[in-house]
């Protein structure tokens, strides 16, 4: 690792849900290396592996030789809500994330599938099924590997409606250095770990990426894996996290606060909700004032450019009695009927936590 610590931060949750589109400077940062400084004029992305024609594309090729597409999608770290798993269930390994390691932005660039079409894959049917598209950034050494890489199934990458982009813009502006300038992968519905920033190499291959962060991180290990040693035998057999689970979380009221009820004896409860992988959008969010005995439906707010991959901001006026409340819960359901469980399975790395959104210890007056 070169000098300097990787930039890792998340905004305050109340700030995060104040806009449907997350401003560039507000979105969380997750890095396993320092931020590389790349030159957009000379940068190239190489496409090779099991392809008919290897390509080497400049940023202007990516911009001018391919149709440009927009997608408004949530991009979420697989470790989002890790703190809840740690606090409500059991200690986990990994840097602490609260509920704001997610952002909902508009991304613009060519579709990965159009770029792969130009290269043309050279695989037979059997190979096709097991093949992955691997992404790499060789510009900076990471904490646990000499480069950063990830891969997703080729079949997903080639789907026109998967909306996977080689993004050149975020919220209509060129990418910033922190978010991957000059080009990053955007993988709607798939964990942020696969959305490789500072992309310089795409490989079509009959195996997953060999990078540390695909093989030895970002996996939902079984509960028997309780430390590094007992985890070791599972890394090679547990699949990497790809699609993220249905989720929601409560931003308001804040844990430990005192809140004045309105004349009708209600308080505003608000948060965000996310669909499972490909199963968006979220169609329902329910809120409970009494730890899950009774539920009322929240209002789902509309957002500009929203679609199946974007988050839903929601709010409701929740009737509640005075005093210190029981837990307030939120529970999202997506278009395919996936609903959050009360608690999700503990795993050593604390990834993919999607138990009910939960706020305790709020005093109502
Ligand atoms: N090259 C590179 N790409 C990367 C990472 C990284 O460390 N290096 N982190 C990944 C992880 S784990 C996440 S959650 C997202 C975070 O994207 P952001 O920093 O734009 O929020 O980028 C992904 N892409
Ligand atoms: Mo991540």
From TrEMBL:
<dbReference type="InterPro" id="IPR008335">
    <property type="entry name" value="Mopterin_OxRdtase_euk"/>
</dbReference>
<keyword id="KW-0500">Molybdenum</keyword>
<feature type="domain" description="Moybdenum cofactor oxidoreductase dimerisation">
    <location>
        <begin position="241"/>
        <end position="357"/>
    </location>
</feature>
<dbReference type="GO" id="GO:0030151">
    <property type="term" value="F:molybdenum ion binding"/>
</dbReference>
<dbReference type="InterPro" id="IPR014756">
    <property type="entry name" value="Ig_E-set"/>
</dbReference>
<dbReference type="InterPro" id="IPR036374">
    <property type="entry name" value="OxRdtase_Mopterin-bd_sf"/>
</dbReference>
<dbReference type="Pfam" id="PF03404">
    <property type="entry name" value="Mo-co_dimer"/>
</dbReference>
<dbReference type="GO" id="GO:0020037">
    <property type="term" value="F:heme binding"/>
</dbReference>
<dbReference type="Pfam" id="PF00174">
    <property type="entry name" value="Oxidored_molyb"/>
</dbReference>
<keyword id="KW-0560">Oxidoreductase</keyword>
<dbReference type="GO" id="GO:0008482">
    <property type="term" value="F:sulfite oxidase activity"/>
</dbReference>
<keyword id="KW-0479">Metal-binding</keyword>
<protein>
    <recommendedName>
        <fullName>Sulfite oxidase</fullName>
    </recommendedName>
</protein>
<feature type="domain" description="Oxidoreductase molybdopterin-binding">
    <location>
        <begin position="33"/>
        <end position="213"/>
    </location>
</feature>
<dbReference type="GO" id="GO:0006790">
    <property type="term" value="P:sulfur compound metabolic process"/>
</dbReference>
<dbReference type="GO" id="GO:0005739">
    <property type="term" value="C:mitochondrion"/>
</dbReference>
<dbReference type="InterPro" id="IPR005066">
    <property type="entry name" value="MoCF_OxRdtse_dimer"/>
</dbReference>
<dbReference type="GO" id="GO:0043546">
    <property type="term" value="F:molybdopterin cofactor binding"/>
</dbReference>
<dbReference type="InterPro" id="IPR000572">
    <property type="entry name" value="OxRdtase_Mopterin-bd_dom"/>
</dbReference>
């Amino acid at each position: 690792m070169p000098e300097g610590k990787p930039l890792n931060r998340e905004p305050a949750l109340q700030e995060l849900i104040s806009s449907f589109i997350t401003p560039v400077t507000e979105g969380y940062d997750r890095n396993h290396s320092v931020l590389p400084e790349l030159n957009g004029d000379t940068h190239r992305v190489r496409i090779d592996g099991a392809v008919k024609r290897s390509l080497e594309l400049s940023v202007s090729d990516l911009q001018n030789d391919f149709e440009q597409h927009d997608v408004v999608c949530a991009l979420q770290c697989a470790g989002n809500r890790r703190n809840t798993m740690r606090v409500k269930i059991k200690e986990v390994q990994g840097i602490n994330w609260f509920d704001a390691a997610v952002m909902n932005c508009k991304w613009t660039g060519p579709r990965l599938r159009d770029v792969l079409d130009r290269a043309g894959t050279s695989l037979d049917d059997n190979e096709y099924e097991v093949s992955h598209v691997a992404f790499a950034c060789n510009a900076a050494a990471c904490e646990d590997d000499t480069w950063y890489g990830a891969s997703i199934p080729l079949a997903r990458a080639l789907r026109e409606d998967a909306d996977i982009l080689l993004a050149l813009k975020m919220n209509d502006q060129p990418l910033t250095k922190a978010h991957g300038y000059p080009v990053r992968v955007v993988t709607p519905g798939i964990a942020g770990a696969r959305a490789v920033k500072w992309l310089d190499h795409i490989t079509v291959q009959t195996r997953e990426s060999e990078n540390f962060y695909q093989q030895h991180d970002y996996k939902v290990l079984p509960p028997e894996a309780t430390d590094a040693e007992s985890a070791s035998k599972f890394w090679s057999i547990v699949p990497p996290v790809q699609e993220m689970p249905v989720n929601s979380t409560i931003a308001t009221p804040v844990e430990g606060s005192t809140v004045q009820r309105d004349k009708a004896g209600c308080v505003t409860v608000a948060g965000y909700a996310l669909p499972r992988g490909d199963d968006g959008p979220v169609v329902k969010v329910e809120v409970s004032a009494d730890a899950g005995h009774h539920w009322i439906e929240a209002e789902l707010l509309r957002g500009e450019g929203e679609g199946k991959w974007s988050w839903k901001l929601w709010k409701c006026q929740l009737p509640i009695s005075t005093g210190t409340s029981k837990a307030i819960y939120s529970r999202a359901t997506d278009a395919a009927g996936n609903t959050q469980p009360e608690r999700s399975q503990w795993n050593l790395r604390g990834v993919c936590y999607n138990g009910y959104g939960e706020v305790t210890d709020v005093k109502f007056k």
